[in-house]
């Protein structure tokens, strides 16, 4: 059996920054990272838009898993704020959370991110314009690396870590068990068993089902979380140019008139591209953008999401989101796309209508009717939000605006952890989006640094 001081399960942002900080503060510790996906350089989605246009359900999704986690091929936005992205500050304090996010930002700059722009929504004129139109712009500083620079940063971090930390790629962890005489054992089919004194679990959103199984086996309490369901909007970049040039991404929230539900913009990608994701065999939609002008498009895309919280007797929020995504996959063979004008007119989009529209899609998707997929309450909220956004960005509600569906953000059951992000089992930490506490690159990375410092003895009780 292999023996380590620390085993990290998952090489997403939480796991990476845990390993980085341990390497820096406690170089004598023997650290291993187990990751079910590929190395960064081996992560290649087969969809090329030519020979392969749709998801072929790879054994391990190169977009969702591997070094860098699901954030590796995101557009590399690090939102430095406590206003959204998770509730890490409730555990470690607001100042500590902000300090750690700024520390992660410095690491990124030192590893290839220098020269990228830091945007801010504080004291912007758009805050007033939003309020005047029934919208609320959240405060944040946003470091945009872009998918291309984010990849470079991750590559440099791996180069620095690979000779000091043992990585096991393409090695899914079956389960984690608590040893009778202290420590933990990690079980894998590929590499067998490994023992550690302390274990950091950082499996991200794609590991939600696995995390629930581990918590059940170890009798760690969990609580129900939420699921965000909606669409990805794609329109000409000029429509949102004033907002994206100044803010890059506007996190805008709207309360609907009909139901008083909250609808929010999410993951805005100026001059970006719409892409697919495979989460446990379910095809959903997302968006990317690039820092390099040569890789940019003529379109901007962003998600419109409605958060759904459930109370007793129903508690399977992720199952609810999965059922809607599966229905979309069944009707569209994958991702579905519809013109906003067709949706309002109560008709499905066709290839001809999409082709004759003024917005050229950046993703090959099946024309269809989203009203057959999304619940009426959610769809009504999205339509209301589009008309509200049209007041601050005229053109948003144009007939040719494209809506891709569905976009679902799955959140893990919130794992019961203390203020040190430690479970009831001393030495077992759960961090990142897999904990249900963080929902962003910056918060997940900060949680990794925090736990590493505690293990290294650099974080006071």
Mean pLDDT: 92
End-to-end C-alpha gap: 33 Å
Question: Structural class, from secondary structure content?
Answer: alpha+beta
Task: List low-pLDDT spans.
Answer: none
Radius of gyration: 22 Å
Main pleated sheet: 8 strands, mixed
Task: Give helix % range.
Answer: 25-40%
The proportion of strand residues reads 25-35%
Q: What gross morphology would you assign?
A: globular
**How many β-strand runs?**
22
Number of helices in the DSSP assignment: 12
Q: Widest sheet: strand order? A: 5-13-14-17-12-20-18-19
Q: SSE layout and pairings?
A:
Layout: E1 2-9, H1 13-25, E2 31-34, E3 77-80, H2 89-92, H3 94-113, E4 118-120, H4 125-132, E5 135-137, E6 141-144, H5 146-161, E7 166-168, E8 173-178, E9 184-188, E10 192-201, H6 208-217, E11 222-223, E12 226-236, H7 241-247, E13 252-255, E14 262-269, E15 273-279, E16 282-288, E17 299-309, H8 317-332, E18 336-339, H9 340-345, H10 351-356, E19 366-367, H11 376-392, E20 402-410, E21 414-415, E22 428-430, H12 441-455
Helix pairs in contact: 1-5, 1-12, 3-5, 3-12
């Amino acid at each position: 059996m292999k023996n380590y001081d620390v085993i990290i399960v998952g090489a997403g942002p939480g796991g990476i920054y845990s390993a980085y900080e341990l390497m820096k503060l406690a170089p004598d510790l023997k650290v291993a990272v187990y990751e079910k996906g590929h190395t960064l350089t081996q992560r290649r989605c087969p969809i090329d838009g030519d020979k392969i246009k749709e998801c072929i359900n790879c054994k391990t999704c190169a977009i969702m898993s591997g070094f860098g986690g699901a954030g590796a091929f995101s557009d590399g936005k690090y939102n430095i704020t406590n206003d959204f992205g998770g509730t890490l500050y409730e555990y470690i304090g607001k100042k500590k959370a902000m300090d750690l996010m700024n520390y992660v930002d410095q690491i990124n700059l030192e590893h290839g991110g220098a020269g990228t722009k830091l945007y801010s929504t504080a004291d912007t004129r758009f805050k007033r314009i939003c309020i005047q139109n029934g919208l609320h712009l959240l405060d944040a500083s946003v470091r945009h690396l872009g998918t291309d620079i984010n990849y470079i940063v991750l590559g440099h971090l791996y180069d620095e870590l690979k000779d000091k930390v043992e990585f096991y790629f393409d090695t899914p962890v079956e389960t984690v068990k608590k040893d009778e005489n202290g420590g933990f054992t990690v079980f894998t089919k590929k590499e067998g068993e490994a023992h550690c004194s302390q274990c950091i679990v950082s499996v991200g959103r794609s590991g939600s089902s696995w995390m629930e199984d581990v918590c059940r086996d170890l009798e760690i309490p969990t609580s129900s979380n939420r699921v965000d369901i909606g669409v990805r909007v794609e329109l000409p970049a000029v429509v949102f140019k004033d907002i994206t040039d100044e803010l890059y991404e506007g996190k805008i929230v709207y309360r609907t008139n009909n139901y008083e539900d909250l609808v929010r913009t999410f993951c805005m990608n100026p001059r970006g591209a719409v892409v697919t994701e495979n989460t446990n065999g379910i095809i959903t939609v997302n968006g990317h953008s690039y820092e390099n002008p040569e890789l940019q498009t003529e379109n901007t895309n962003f998600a419109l999401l409605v958060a759904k919280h459930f109370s007793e007797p129903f508690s399977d929020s992720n199952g609810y989101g999965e059922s809607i995504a599966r229905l979309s996959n069944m009707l569209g063979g994958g991702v579905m796309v519809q013109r906003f004008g067709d949706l309002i007119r109560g008709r499905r989009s066709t290839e001809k209508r999409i082709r004759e529209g003024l917005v050229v899609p950046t993703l090959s998707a099946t024309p269809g009717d989203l009203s057959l997929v999304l619940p009426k309450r959610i769809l009504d909220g999205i339509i209301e939000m589009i008309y509200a956004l049209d007041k601050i960005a005229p053109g948003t509600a144009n007939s040719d605006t494209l809506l891709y569906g569905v976009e679902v953000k799955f959140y893990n059951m919130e794992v019961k952890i203390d203020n040190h992000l430690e479970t009831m089992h001393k030495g077992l930490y759960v961090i990142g989006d897999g904990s249900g506490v963080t929902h962003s690159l910056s918060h997940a990375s900060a949680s990794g640094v925090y736990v590493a410092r505690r293990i290294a003895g650099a974080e006071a009780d």
